[in-house]
């Protein structure tokens, strides 16, 4: 593990500019480290030849003193549910195991235009349905912070973007892209001790992100600092003619103030009482209280607020998710792309065998349940009702953010209820139960489309990261990340713990 992989993007960029480091050298090291940390299973596929070629091109730009951006020559990783031209994109599923898209997702092409280097595609739960990165056909991803990475004593990385979180936490790349439909960026960020941002719905294009729940999917960002996260957001955000759900207004790049310029006196922080829920670990609760106190001492107004429909979120999400999944998954029929079964008895049989072979149990269950919920006799009772309750959940947020006399700017909550669970405990639960516990704090933000960020705060007694979540009203990323940056500076969490890295490399 070389020290420069632990730098922030700004520092690497200035080292590229003055020649102390080169994109080629850094990329070479990143590839070496990724290979030596294969035990984490963060990557489904490394792309070393491509990465070294892109690094060489970047190096030439630096030699000509014409870098494309601050991200030029910076190794990044992308979750394997974003299309990458000529690089397989599998969704960790047998259905897409041999799928090679001819085009890049918008997020990927914007990162390429900025000169970043694609180190590889990262692991996930199949089709991003999960909260642990435990059921990929390529095997589960491990958490670098595990006390013991061997046998059955290791911890999950969280999910579904566990590979991206794990790669950033292990210092294999400076940032990674994930997706967030119900918490899949924030949850693994929380467990792996890195920053995980879910932007406002529509701020970042979904074009080329293989859909899970179109009305909630958002590309997410993993980084080891809030500043690095902002740099990536500034490159990928903004309208896209290829995604009609992107917000039309031009994106104004964020610029965070220096920490000592941040004044919390005019900021009001809400603590939603409903997030103090069953299953919240005492350590997470203590961390939450402590940060609320620190904010208050620094002059912020901290008050308890209520989001009364929070507990309904898990059920509503589950219904809407399965209904949209049923519709989205219809495209995998063995005809146009993806897996095709060797079954020529009839077209119907071909569809059926293809889908039976291609999908895992989780995907099949969601398709079946979704179709059941959408039956004419059930549609109003479940789907329509869920949409109405979704509206109530979104209105809860609007009320606390916009009511004149009691408005708050930022909500502070836990991200996950506990530290990262042991794989053996987590995998004893069904996918449904896993998500019901893991996503309690994260799903409401997807339901309302608002931005949310998870930041690591401290280590638990077991030496595992504990994180908190901040949420704000839509398109208020500037304030959200400013407060996150302030907290980050107070807690000085070391995202890269070298002891863990050495143990993992052995
Ligand atoms: N755990 C949730 C699910 O399985 C969220 C997944 C996600 O955000 N991609 O649906």
TrEMBL record:
Location of the protein in the cell: Mitochondrion
Positions of the catalytic residues: 79 (charge relay system), 160 (charge relay system), 184 (acyl-ester intermediate)
Domain Amidase: 38-481
A biological-process GO annotation: mitochondrial translation
Coiled coil: none
Substrates-to-products reaction catalysed: L-glutamyl-tRNA(Gln) + L-glutamine + ATP + H2O = L-glutaminyl-tRNA(Gln) + L-glutamate + ADP + phosphate + H(+)
One Gene Ontology cellular component annotation held by this UniProt entry: glutamyl-tRNA(Gln) amidotransferase complex
GO terms, molecular function: ATP binding; glutaminyl-tRNA synthase (glutamine-hydrolyzing) activity
Gene3D superfamilies per UniProt: Amidase signature (AS) domain
InterPro entries for this protein: Amidase, Amidase_dom, AS_sf, GatA
Recorded family membership: Belongs to the amidase family. GatA subfamily.
Its job: Allows the formation of correctly charged Gln-tRNA(Gln) through the transamidation of misacylated Glu-tRNA(Gln) in the mitochondria. The reaction takes place in the presence of glutamine and ATP through an activated gamma-phospho-Glu-tRNA(Gln).
HAMAP family: GatA
Description of how the protein assembles with itself and partners: Subunit of the heterotrimeric GatCAB amidotransferase (AdT) complex, composed of A, B and C subunits.
Name of the protein in its database record: Glutamyl-tRNA(Gln) amidotransferase subunit A, mitochondrial
Organism name: Drosophila willistoni
């Amino acid at each position: 593990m070389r020290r420069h992989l632990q730098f922030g993007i700004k520092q690497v960029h200035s080292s590229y500019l003055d020649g102390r480091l080169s994109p080629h050298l850094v990329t070479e090291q990143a590839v070496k480290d990724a290979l030596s940390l294969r035990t984490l299973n963060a990557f489904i596929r490394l792309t070393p030849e491509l990465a070294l070629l892109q690094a060489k091109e970047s190096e030439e730009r630096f030699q000509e003193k014409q870098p494309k951006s601050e991200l030029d020559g910076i190794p990044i990783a992308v979750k394997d549910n974003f299309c990458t031209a000529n690089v397989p994109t599998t969704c960790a599923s047998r259905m897409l195991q041999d799928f090679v898209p001819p085009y890049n997702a918008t997020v990927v092409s914007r990162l390429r235009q900025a000169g970043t280097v694609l180190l590889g595609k990262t692991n996930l739960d199949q089709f991003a349905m999960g909260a642990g990165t435990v059921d990929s056909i390529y095997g589960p991803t491990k958490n670098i912070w595990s006390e013991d990475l061997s046998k059955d004593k290791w911890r999950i990385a969280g999910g579904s973007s566990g590979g991206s979180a794990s790669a950033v936490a292990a210092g294999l790349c400076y940032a990674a892209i994930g997706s967030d439909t119900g918490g899949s960026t924030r949850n693994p960020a929380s467990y792996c001790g890195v920053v995980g941002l879910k932007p406002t719905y529509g701020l970042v294009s979904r074009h080329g992100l293989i859909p899970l729940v179109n009305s909630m999917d958002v590309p997410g960002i993993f980084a080891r600092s809030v500043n690095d996260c902002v740099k990536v957001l500034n490159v990928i955000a903004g309208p896209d003619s290829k995604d009609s759900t992107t917000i039309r207004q031009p994106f104004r790049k964020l610029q965070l103030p220096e920490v000592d310029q941040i004044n919390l006196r005019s900021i009001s922080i809400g603590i939603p009482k409903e997030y103090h829920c069953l299953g919240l670990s005492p350590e997470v609760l203590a961390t939450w209280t402590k940060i609320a106190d620190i904010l208050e001492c620094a002059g912020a107004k901290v008050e308890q607020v209520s989001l009364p429909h929070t507990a309904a979120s898990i059920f509503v999400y589950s219904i809407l998710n399965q209904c949209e999944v049923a519709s989205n998954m219809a495209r995998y029929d063995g005809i146009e792309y993806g897996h095709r079964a060797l079954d020529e008895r009839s077209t119907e049989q071909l569809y059926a065998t293809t889908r039976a072979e291609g999908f895992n149990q989780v995907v099949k269950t969601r398709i079946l349940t979704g179709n059941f919920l959408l039956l004419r006799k059930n549609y109003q009772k479940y789907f329509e009702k869920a949409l109405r309750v979704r509206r109530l959940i979104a209105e809860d947020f609007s009320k606390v953010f916009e009511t004149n006399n009691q408005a708050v700017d930022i909500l502070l909550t836990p991200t996950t209820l506990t530290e990262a669970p042991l794989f053996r405990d987590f995998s004893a639960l069904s996918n449904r139960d896993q998500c019901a516990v893991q996503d309690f704090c994260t799903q409401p933000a997807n339901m309302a489309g608002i931005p949310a960020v998870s930041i690591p705060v401290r280590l638990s007694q077991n030496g595992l990261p504990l994180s908190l979540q901040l949420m704000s009203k839509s398109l208020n990323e500037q304030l959200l990340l400013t407060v996150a940056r302030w907290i980050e500076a107070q807690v000085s969490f070391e995202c890269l713990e070298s002891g863990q890295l050495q143990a993992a490399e052995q």
